[in-house]
Amino acid sequence: MPSPPTQWTVYLAGEIHSHWRQQIEAGAEAAGIPVIFTSPVTDHDASDRCGADILGDQDDPFWLDHTGAKINAIRTRTFLKQADIVVVRFGEKYRQWNAAFDAGFAAALGTPLIILHDPEHRHALKEVDAAAQAVATTPEQVVQLLTYAIEGRLN
């Protein structure tokens, strides 16, 4: 049987308008689990404007979004492929097609998937939830799931 990695990589995908990532990172540090966290660019303006800022402004909003999405995909797809576990947070403020795409990409790769969302989104996310190994409603539950998966302990 292969030995587990000495350090796990956990990709934190999804909404960027709350502090859920910092809560999970702080909880993992407090739990003492050997984890490296990666994530997409969480500066919304930088993520939206990267194509224009790097490659030049676009006259058509479609091409502005298209160029930015392709540049962001360099980071996102690389980190998704390197992840041992992917956590995807669906928030309440915005429609998060990018989060759904990341969840589907991780599922297609066969990477273990933890979905994080509020209970009122259960119906809307039922297909995404069905692809996950666990569905949590709080960052604390995610830390407990990571601790158990990585270390085999409940606390």
Write structural notes for this entry.
Strand 1 (8-14), helix 1 (20-31) and strand 2 (35-38) form a beta-alpha-beta unit. Helix 1 (20-31) runs parallel beside helix 6 (139-151), helix 2 packs across helix 3 and helix 3 (61-82) packs parallel to helix 4 (97-109). Strands 2-1-3-4-5 form a five-stranded parallel β-sheet, with helices on both faces. The chain is globular and about 55 Å long. It is α/β, with parallel strands linked by helices. It is 50% helix and 16% strand. The protein has a domain at 8-41 and 81-151: Response regulator (Rossmann fold), CATH 3.40.50.2300.
Secondary-structure map with pairings?
Layout: E1 8-14, H1 20-31, E2 35-38, H2 44-55, H3 61-82, E3 85-90, H4 97-109, E4 113-117, H5 126-131, E5 134-136, H6 139-151
Parallel strand pairs: 1-2, 1-3, 3-4, 4-5
Helix pairs in contact: 1-6, 2-3, 3-4
How many strands in all? Answer: 5
Q: What is the H level of CATH, i.e. the homologous superfamily of the domain at 8-41 and 81-151?
A: Response regulator
CATH architecture of the domain at 8-41 and 81-151: 3-Layer(aba) Sandwich
What order do the helices and strands follow? EHEHHEHEHEH
Q: For the largest sheet, list the strands in their spatial order.
A: 2-1-3-4-5
What is the CATH domain class of the domain at 8-41 and 81-151? Alpha Beta
- What does the average pLDDT come to? 93
Tertiary shape: globular
Stated plainly, the CATH topology of the domain at 8-41 and 81-151 is called Rossmann fold
How much helical structure, as a percent, in the residues?
A: 40-55%
Largest sheet: 5 strands, parallel
Euclidean distance between termini CA atoms = 25 Å
The helix count comes to 6
Uncertain segments: none
What is the CA-based Rg, rounded?
16 Å
Question: Strand-residue fraction?
Answer: 15-25%
Structural class: alpha/beta
